[in-house]
What we know:
The structure is a homodimer. Chain A is of the alpha/beta class. Helix content of chain A is 38%, strand content 22%. The longest helix of chain A is centred in the first third of the chain and has 17 residues, at 98-114.
Amino acid sequence: xxxxxxxxxxxxxxxxxxxxxxxxxxxxxxxxxxxxxxxxxxxxxxxxxxxxxxxxxxxxxxxxxxxxxxxxxxxxxxxxxxxxxxxxxxxxxxxxxxxxxxxxxxxxxxxxxxxxxxxxxxxxxxxxxxxxxxxxxxxxxxxxxxxxxxxxxxxxxxxxxxxxxxxxxxxxxxxxxxxxxxxxxxxxxxxxxxxxxxxxxxxxxxxxxxxxxxxxxxxxxxxxxxxxxxxxxxxxxxxxxxxxxxxxxxxxxxxxxxxxxxxxxxxxxxxxxxxxxxxxxxxxxxxxxxxxxxxxxxxxxxxxxxxxxxxxxxxxxxxxxxxxxxxxxxxxxxxxxxxxxxxxxxxxxxxxxxxxxxxxxxxxxxxxxxxxxxxxxxxxxxxxxxxxxxxxxxxxxxxxxxxxxxxxxxxxxxxxxxxxxxxxxxxxxxxx
Amino acid sequence: xxxxxxxxxxxxxxxxxxxxxxxxxxxxxxxxxxxxxxxxxxxxxxxxxxxxxxxxxxxxxxxxxxxxxxxxxxxxxxxxxxxxxxxxxxxxxxxxxxxxxxxxxxxxxxxxxxxxxxxxxxxxxxxxxxxxxxxxxxxxxxxxxxxxxxxxxxxxxxxxxxxxxxxxxxxxxxxxxxxxxxxxxxxxxxxxxxxxxxxxxxxxxxxxxxxxxxxxxxxxxxxxxxxxxxxxxxxxxxxxxxxxxxxxxxxxxxxxxxxxxxxxxxxxxxxxxxxxxxxxxxxxxxxxxxxxxxxxxxxxxxxxxxxxxxxxxxxxxxxxxxxxxxxxxxxxxxxxxxxxxxxxxxxxxxxxxxxxxxxxxxxxxxxxxxxxxxxxxxxxxxxxxxxxxxxxxxxxxxxxxxxxxxxxxxxxxxxxxxxxxxxxxxxxxxxx
Lengths: 432, 432
């Protein structure tokens, strides 16, 4: 089917830079964008949609999270980190069944889709059910089951999580015409031992996989690694061969200048998680320095237990302002950088060269913002408006592969009422 | 008229602390709250409103802003501060007419009311028209015309702004049964001279007025004052007698420990402006230290030119997380503190003992949040949910003095369409 969006403002990408087209036309042929321009295309389309008063933008890529943790939103709120994690989070997570995770992820999908996310990267367990959800919901997803190893004597062959990770990869990588990708994943240096990580990293490289890790999120974990191994977590992963596969490194708050050289050299993608880093008191990742060095920075929400939502628009806003405040420099970050982090850079991290920008030939993965709210007047600079003024609730349309998933509050691929009902039942099971 | 809200969760205040009442009842007699409880009141009400699935909370008090600057939203975005202010902002402000300011303020009212603000403090010029707007819109407002003096030789009697400020006070202070208050205002130390400020501060005290100032917003301005006078701006104002009237001091980013002692001693209220301080690269106000010292901290959005919206929910969120990140301490701030800053503390700053909390005998100034969105599930902790997870768009009702101003997207006292139309015309006039 050929669809035409007409009379919309378009946040297009030309020569790797954003260009705002006013009152334009965007054509879709099946799953692909086949026209973007200021004038009506010559060809005809099966359907035409009047998008007056709307801005069409590339879909947001949420590059780090643990979506089923929406079921733990607000649990143990405002406790110190260690107490929160070990006394509140983990006992609940131990109780989660595959069905809880199915429902939790669906609840997260409702939130993410309404907030403009078209593609997300997720690290959790029971990911088969999460893959099935993504297939039916129509979103893109890079999913992983992280390796954790708490017993130094454990053999690689006996690590159940590594086994599950490989099974997940074989079963779902490339599913739904590539909408689903399965990543390899190591939870973090402090939850692993070198031997297993070396073997797992080798398997990742052999199978042509992508890697997703936590890296230097907290000072405590970063310093403990240096004390234990005499090297930073980044150097530790480098020496394990982990970075020999394309890697997404979440947080990177405490990385050193030498670590940044490693990340640049190995083309590691950084996932910036602004809210989580602030809320949990992790600190300020050196994002401006990373951008200066040409490191690929992307954006993620982290899990709802440490955020406490999955609202990418909030993350864009924070990424654009928090470093200004920290460095006492109002121009150290700008909207174009942040929007690129949340779109094209995210696509590159996920190994998706066919999305992340509104350009002819790319996938029709896009969102629309209703732009006639009082808080979006005047519209002198669409990039600034999206970054500083817009709210997630301004998202009025979410499309992936040319298929509308959400429009004006209605979900077209998910049964919101059923999910809400099942979530309540799951919460009763979990918390009694 | 007597109105009953039934089956709502209520963020009530008991003994100066929040208490969440589940599935409760809230009765309103005229402009006042006359019942809050878990059971149906014995008395009868003229109307009953089913509020199932909603949380009723005290209205938000936006304690510092320059509302007509919504007309400058995004102008000169991402320029260095000096260039932005002197080359972009000021030339536009010089062109603003009273009618532009009327329309700009109305546009701001649409935004603020939808985002849950019931009372706001505003510093700008042509404030008679802003007062008239507040009277007809039904909100509470503390308005001021700031004194600026750029000529050291100017006599107090010749300062047109001081004169306008006093005229405004005489004409509108206490209007609309006290909904409108007129504050005295000194723009800042760096835009004034001692003589005029001493005379004006004396007039404020004599007339029993309240004062609204900018204080130590940027390092540059703070340091320049120390260099010029050998004392900090806080000490400078103290010595001018400014703090002899109840004072609202916006920003306070660079205040010293000695300054904090002054603010505490003189019962000065601090207005924290999280987004503005981050976006403009001003820095991190020492809010946790202020709270420790028992200084009254409130919250404001600042103007839309330096924010770039008037969304108090965004400010609550930031106030709750940014200091955790800065101090590497996840529990240095908590939701109850932040919600109190945005409600009861704001009311105290504005000199309004009759609002800012849901308690029997207080004014019926309240907002309701629609709580059944996916991003607000589960609801273990309403305070955490409002602070960390909720969005301004979850506000479904705004009531002041027992009168509904906004409900489910509809404005009951403002003609949104007319305002939008007039704003477009004003923007054309201003920018051509």
